[in-house]
Design a protein that fits this description.
There is one protein chain. By secondary structure, this protein is α/β, with parallel strands linked by helices. 54% of the residues lie in helices and 14% in strands. It has 15 helices and nine strands. The strands form two sheets. The protein has a six-stranded parallel beta sheet with strand order 3-2-1-4-5-6. A three-stranded mixed beta sheet has the order 7-8-9. Helix 10 packs across helix 13 and helix 10 packs across helix 14. It is globular and about 60 Å long.
């Protein structure tokens, strides 16, 4: 496996492309706006004007796009991946998307002689840049093993989760936990600010104790500094939580904290803050 097609060269995708090239893979890339990917083109990625041309000569295709409807578009639309990928190619969707859609893509791809995996990631822009992503993979175990060199170029915590769709279900678990944790971080820092505590001293005091968490580590200092630039967009977190809520409802679960945090984030998006980072939840507590 040498030549990789990559669709979705955004905040995370660009770093993933770079790490794959560092590992020796040849990257064919597609992006709607060439100007946004000129840097990775200069570094050796080969740019294509359409998805079909990008993927047709590749051993594997990786996608990491925005929403489930974008996943459907890149795989199923006329002239795109399923129509143009060569038989035997590996198709790896790393978007956080619908588990049911992942199962549908697996079945359709298999009928076409393609090897389809759902492999959403966690770790944000920092993990993508450092090549330390967690990668949660659903699909055939044999296909997972065949793609391990790709995954190891992008991540360090690579987990096979079982049948098609299970990668996405595991990502839902991750996002549910983040929703509760990040809400707690924002509430606690809001309390500290209201009580006029030394916020840096508070952060130092709690970070290494029982209240410490990855969300606090990554976003606590940004919240205190008023840095709301995205490592992961509010609008994409809304999408993830909505998917998790829909899956929970389908299974007869009522996840109260998830639903409340989703409501807060939806209000932020409605107010025009969808392109900020997830730490923008602090705005809910400041208003």
């Amino acid at each position: 496996m040498k030549t990789i097609g990559f669709i979705g060269v955004g905040i995370m995708g660009k770093s993933m492309v770079r790490n794959l090239m560092k590992a020796g893979f040849t990257l064919h890339i597609y992006a709607r706006t060439r100007a946004k990917v000129e840097d990775v083109i200069d570094e050796g990625a080969l740019f294509y004007e359409d998805i079909g041309s990008c993927v047709e000569d590749c051993d594997a295709v990786i996608t990491i796009v925005g929403y489930p409807e974008d996943v459907e578009e890149v795989y199923l639309a006329e002239g795109n991946i399923f129509e143009r990928a060569r038989a035997g190619a590996y198709c790896i969707d790393m978007t956080t998307s619908s588990p049911n859609l992942a199962k549908q893509l697996y079945a359709k791809g298999k009928a076409l002689g393609l090897h389809v995996l759902d492999a959403p990631v966690t770790g944000g822009d920092v993990g993508a840049k450092n090549g330390t992503l967690s990668i949660l993979v659903g699909g055939e175990e044999e296909d997972f093993k065949a793609c391990l060199p790709l995954f190891k170029a992008m991540g360090t915590n690579i987990q096979y989760e079982g049948k098609a769709g299970n990668g996405q279900h595991t990502k839902m678990v991750n996002q549910i936990m983040i929703a509760a944790n990040l809400s707690g971080v924002c509430e606690a820092l809001s309390y500290a600010r209201k009580k006029e505590l030394d916020l840096d001293a508070v952060l130092a005091a709690v970070s290494s104790g029982a209240a410490g968490s990855r969300q606090l580590e990554l976003l606590g200092s940004k919240i205190l500094a008023g840095d709301l630039n995205p490592g992961f967009f509010v609008k994409h977190f809304v999408k993830d939580m909505r998917l998790a809520a829909e899956e929970a409802e389908e299974s007869g679960l009522k996840l109260d904290i998830l639903l409340q945090v989703l409501k807060h984030y939806q209000a932020l998006e409605t107010d025009g803050w969808g392109d900020l980072g997830t730490q923008a939840l602090i705005k809910h507590y400041e208003e």
